[in-house]
RNA sequence: GGAGAGGUGGCCGAGUGGUCGAAGGCGGCACAUUGCUAAUGUGUUGUGGGCUCAAAAGGCCUACCGCGAGUUCGAAUCUCGCCCUCUCCGCCA
């Protein structure tokens, strides 16, 4: 969130950002309210100054034994007028606050302008399999006895999944593998709450915009997290860090909960879009001047996972219209899913500049002694269900088995291949 | 869930109606001094907002002692609500 001072002095930039991100923040109204606010503020502060001065005089007069009733009554009247003005001011502040929440982050200069069609594939890795007759993950999962979507549907409805046997272990193995992978590269493992308050979500920019996508527990005033980004980014909420403590690189596993309101359709079958899914998430808190580089290395970290698993992917630089509300720049990582015959987004690596830091109250004391907001970044490293889709579909063999990447062997108890259950027994 | 205690500046910790943005200490910074990255001395050191200034510096004003209301001429200090922490009891994976 930007403050009024910034918006006042960067009006054109903000106006452009709103348009390019296809947001609808009412900048004119904000600027008008800002003018009114400063006008009123000047008045009320002058009156407060007077009240303070006269109150002190009353104190001195009383100490000297003089009578003060008349003056006290006069100051009281002044106080009443202050109260009325303050109330008006509070109203203006609240209105401005409401409007400010809808002002999006400004896209970085390197971000292509336009809608989804302006997204740029910046690089690709690996050879996508494109033969005919490849099975999709649902067929493979059923044949191998490791995935049962209808079982989850019976108890929870659509948008959930049940993994069985080696399939369940595969999920656990992937989580462990990814956590180890990132920890070995300087990220600190964190275990986080899966329920947070609205403030934490607001800080990340999930609220107010994505309210409809959130699972809420009204009785507790808590929300199920849509991603571990929320607890990780809020880890140091409201504190002042020292420059020497930065960068802070965090990684956490968490389940993620999303209502995905209105998202049901043909491209969401199987594990492609779920209400609950597992994800390993990275978050960085960094110095502003290193933000751009940190985004590149963050993206590289997520790519590292995919490379270690030998899965073909491509990196997409999102255009302004596709960029999320709080992001200034974002790379999506997409895995090739041969059975689906399409690319699936498994990671989103974003640089939020100081947008989240302002909302969360994340500052650091710079070497020159000044307080500044730091920069936040996050990236999936990576999301499990679609990774599973790509893995099953990519490593399927003509024999109906699925080979497992060598990197997972230690996490699978040495198992190197998923095979259909023998004699119809359960896997 | 019940009973009690408490939340003050980067940290520790005083402060129960006025001159308190807040003693003292630690830490930080500057200078001085000492035969050296130690010790000592002196000074300095919060944040947000508004106005002023071409800008910066500076200056003036205002707000902030967990959060929000209230009492009062005047609130860190009194009252109410909320949040959080700690201790004891209960419950519990």
TrEMBL record:
Gene3D superfamilies: Bira Bifunctional Protein, Domain 2, Serine-tRNA synthetase, tRNA binding domain. One of its GO terms (biological process) is selenocysteine biosynthetic process. Its EC number is 6.1.1.11. Pathway: Aminoacyl-tRNA biosynthesis; selenocysteinyl-tRNA(Sec) biosynthesis; L-seryl-tRNA(Sec) from L-serine and tRNA(Sec): step 1/1. Residues 136-405 form the Aminoacyl-transfer RNA synthetases class-II family profile domain. CDD domains: SerRS_core. It catalyses: tRNA(Sec) + L-serine + ATP = L-seryl-tRNA(Sec) + AMP + diphosphate + H(+); tRNA(Ser) + L-serine + ATP = L-seryl-tRNA(Ser) + AMP + diphosphate + H(+). Pfam families: Seryl_tRNA_N, tRNA-synt_2b. GO terms for cellular component: cytoplasm. L-serine binds at residues 227-229, 258, 281, 378, 380. PROSITE patterns: AA_TRNA_LIGASE_II. Consists of two distinct domains, a catalytic core and a N-terminal extension that is involved in tRNA binding. Catalyzes the attachment of serine to tRNA(Ser). Is also able to aminoacylate tRNA(Sec) with serine, to form the misacylated tRNA L-seryl-tRNA(Sec), which will be further converted into selenocysteinyl-tRNA(Sec). Homodimer. The tRNA molecule binds across the dimer. This is Serine--tRNA ligase. It comes from Eiseniibacteriota bacterium. The gene is serS.
């Amino acid at each position: 969130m930007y403050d009024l001072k910034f918006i006042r002095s960067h009006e054109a930039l903000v106006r452009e950002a709103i348009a390019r991100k296809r947001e609808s923040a009412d900048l004119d109204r904000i600027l008008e309210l800002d003018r009114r606010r400063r006008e009123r503020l000047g008045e009320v502060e002058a009156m407060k100054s007077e009240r303070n001065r006269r109150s002190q005089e009353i104190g001195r007069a009383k100490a000297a034994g003089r009578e003060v009733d008349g003056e006290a009554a006069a100051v009281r009247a002044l106080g009443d007028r202050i109260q009325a003005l303050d109330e008006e001011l509070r109203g203006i502040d609240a209105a401005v606050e409401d409007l400010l929440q809808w002002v999006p982050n400004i896209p970085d200069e390197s971000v292509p302008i336009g809608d989804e069609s302006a997204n740029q594939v910046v690089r690709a890795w690996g050879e996508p399999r494109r033969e005919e007759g490849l099975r999709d993950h649902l067929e493979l999962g059923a044949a191998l006895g490791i995935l049962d979507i209808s079982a989850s549907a019976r108890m929870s409805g659509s948008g959930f999944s049940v993994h069985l046997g080696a399939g369940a272990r595969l999920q656990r193995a992937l989580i462990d593998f990814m956590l180890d992978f990132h920890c070995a590269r300087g990220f600190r493992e964190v275990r986080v709450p899966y329920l947070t308050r609205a403030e934490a979500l607001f800080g990340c920019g999930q609220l107010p915009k994505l309210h409809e996508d959130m699972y809420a527990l009204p009785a507790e005033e808590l929300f199920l997290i849509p991603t571990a980004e929320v607890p990780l980014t809020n880890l140091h909420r409201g504190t002042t860090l020292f420059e020497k403590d930065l960068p802070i690189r965090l990684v956490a596993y968490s389940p993620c909960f999303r209502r995905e309101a209105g998202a049901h359709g043909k491209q969401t079958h199987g594990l492609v879009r779920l209400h609950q899914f597992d994800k390993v998430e990275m978050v960085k808190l960094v110095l502003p001047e290193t933000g751009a580089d940190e985004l590149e290395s963050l993206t590289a970290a997520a790519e590292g996972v995919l490379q270690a698993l030998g899965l073909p992917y491509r990196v997409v630089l999102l255009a302004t219209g596709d960029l999320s509300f709080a992001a200034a720049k974002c790379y999506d990582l997409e895995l090739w899913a041969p059975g689906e015959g399409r690319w699936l987004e498994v990671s989103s690596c974003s640089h939020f500049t100081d947008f989240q830091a302002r909302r969360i109250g994340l500052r650091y004391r710079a070497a020159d002694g000044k307080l500044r907001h730091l920069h936040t970044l996050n990236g999936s490293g990576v999301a499990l269900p679609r990774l599973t889709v790509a893995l099953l579909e990519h490593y399927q063999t003509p024999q109906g088995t699925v080979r497992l990447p060598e990197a997972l062997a230690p996490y699978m108890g040495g198992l190197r291949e998923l095979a259909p259950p023998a004699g119809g027994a359960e896997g």
